[in-house]
Amino acid sequence: MEGIRRFINQAYISYKSLFSVLSIQNYLLVKTLMPLFQMIFFVLTAKLAYHSTDLTPWIIGNSFILASFNAFFGVGNSFITERAMGTLKVIIASPINKFVIFIGRTLMHIIDGLFTVVLGLIVGVILFKMDLTQINYPLFIVVLLTGVFSVMCLGVLIGIFALITREIHMLLNTTYSFMILFSGANIPKDDLPKACAIITNILPLSRSIEAARMIYNGNLNVGMQLIQEFLLGCAYIFLALLLYNFLENIARKGSAIDVY
């Protein structure tokens, strides 16, 4: 129990440190208004582009994409903060499992990401009259949890690169743009060039978005999408662990922790 309590406390303190310098107004602007306006923009763009009166597929897709904002600019920034504040060397020198510390950084962002997605769906109901009364809520929640888990794992993998480079923001923004373009949230997979299919298959949320849309349409046969999404998240974590161990070994052998 003591270990769990410390794990949760570390996750909370790490999350709080990212936003402690912001006033409540700026926090709400960064965490809610900006992502929601982005969602509304893409939903309205889809309405004009596809001349559709049913905007539900784009509302669901862009609501799920909001979780990637937490994954990249939340989890990713937590690694940047460790480097910028000079605490990275202390973590590396500590006797505990460093990778567990970094994984703990995702806990609060998973909760925050879930809240942001739900908020996006509420905006869809209020502004665009989306009807969610007939969906299977337990299954929809499972799909949401799986999707958020997967994208947070990608955030950890990308955040690891912040340990070796200062130019991580370009990578974060590029990956976020890839999510918007190739996840299927805004452009149907069938409309994408065939060369982009590879990108779509390795991105998180694409299968969760597909499964959420299937549930909305009454098709509950989403087991394959859930399994694939979960395994993709596990693959991201495994790659992040390998990358972290590789970089840490280089730093220790060269007696240069500052390689990070």
Describe this structure in words.
The chain is mainly α and 260 residues long. The chain has one domain. The chain contains eleven helices and no strands. It has helices spanning 2-19, 24-50, 56-84, 88-93, 98-104, 107-128, 137-160, 168-182, 197-202, 206-216, 223-253. Helix 2 runs antiparallel to helix 3 (56-84), helix 6 (107-128) packs across helix 7 (137-160) and helix 10 (206-216) packs antiparallel against helix 11 (223-253). The two termini are 33 Å apart. 35% of the residues are buried.
What order do the helices and strands come in, and which of them pair?
Layout: H1 2-19, H2 24-50, H3 56-84, H4 88-93, H5 98-104, H6 107-128, H7 137-160, H8 168-182, H9 197-202, H10 206-216, H11 223-253
Helix pairs in contact: 2-3, 2-6, 3-6, 3-7, 3-8, 3-10, 6-7, 7-10, 7-11, 10-11
Provide tags for this entry:
260 residues, 75% helix, single chain, mainly alpha
* Number of structural domains: 1
Main beta sheet: none
> How much of the polypeptide forms β-strand, as a percent range?
under 5%
Q: What is the ordering of alpha helices and beta strands?
A: HHHHHHHHHHH
Could you estimate the helical fraction of the residues in percent? over 70%
Residue windows where pLDDT falls under 50 for at least 5 positions: none
Oligomer: single chain
- Total DSSP E strands: 0
